Amino acid sequence: MKKIAIIGLGYVGLPLGLRFAESGVQVLGLDVDQAKIDAINAGRSYIKHIEDAAIATARESGRLEASTDFSRVAEVEAVLICVPTPLNKHREPDISYVLKSGAAIAPYLGRSAQLQQASGEQGAGSREQGTTTNSTTQRLNHSTPKLVILESTTYPGTTDTDLREVLEAGSGLKAGEGFHLAFSPEREDPGRKDHSVKTIPKVMGGYTEACLARCVELYSLALDAVHPVSSCRVAEATKLTENIFRSVNIALVNELKTVFHKMDIDVWDVIDAAATKPFGFMPFYPGPGLGGHCIPIDPFYLTWKAREYEQHTRFIELAGEINTHMPDYVVDRVGEALNEDAKSIKGSKILLLGMAYKPNVDDDRESPSYVLTKKLEDKGATVSYNDPYVPEIKVTREHPEYAGRKSVEITDDYDCVLLATHHNAYKTFDFSGFKCPVVDTRNCVSKRPEKYFRA
Q1: CATH node for 3-110+145-230
Q2: What's the pTM value of the predicted model, to 2 decimals?
Q3: Annotated active-site positions, please?
Q4: Rounded Cα distance, 43 and 52, in Å
Q5: Which CATH superfamily is domain 288-294+311-454 in?
């Protein structure tokens, strides 16, 4: 039975680990968060759309366990890195989690746990130039090198340059010989029902042809389709292109929303009508701003890297400007709605619906709801929130000041209700009797009050 390790047990790593376990692969989950480790080993889920039963089944089968001990990489044949790649405060790529993961596993890339036990090695053991002193181990590791695959979204060159250098320095081994190296971008879409980890085709590129062959072999055990490409950099660029495509098209409809509003034209009606064309058009829908760990972040990885080549990514930067401005547009619409009641934002009580960045999940990473909350509070409003998927706000990188706030009941006891996330619960909620204005950023509300505004 093959055994792999997955570093990072979040929205990408955990579903991937479960899929491999379901396919018969033994999975060791590694994370620095002890709470996640304890939950998995107890058969409990900490992600809303993943059921406890899925983890419990994998645990009972003996094919899933979790640990904070990165030295156990010595036990596995492959390591999949699924850690965050955020932007820093200067909106520059932060690949520190990737490089720290690489440094943590590098000393164990040439190791076989079974042979270490047989030779009486403990812990790090005796090493010289990154190889063990046991000649049998050396021969085994040379013939069956470990495979390291990066899944975290990043700029082209991260895998074959930055990560490779860290792995080679820490192991004393050469990529392509002492260990295999590849990049295969995650395509996880939390909460989605029509596609899954198993069914979404997997793009992958290797540092060498042998690296790619190992990568294809591994993923083919668990996924329906793989799509090998010519290099790690092509695979890295593929992921960025997918998210840039979405960012640019969302920016386009966001801009059209503001233009059509001035013309008293319903942008959602326009998009639905255009989508009836069977070719040449793909519907994208406007919103209050971008959220999640992909679209608000990934395009700027390419923008940053392009400067190294004296290239300017004008479409990407313009799309970023438009999408970043959307919360300001929404706040202006809230102000207009309150003005109809002879009120201002300052001093108003506002109920924001939805802290998650997308519907029907508990994923609040980079959610525009946090930006909306801050902008409204900076203008003097008192903001409460409701979200059935986020009962209490946890610490976030961007807005740690909101940690501990709890979801409240939806009532008419507010000066304004602002819908930011189109959870199914809000689509069917009866707002028709509400006296306060309801501002809908998602064209979501079906039972509308008299004072209904789109934003």
Answers
A1: 3.40.50.720
A2: 0.88
A3: 294
A4: 6
A5: NAD(P)-binding Rossmann-like Domain (3.40.50.720)
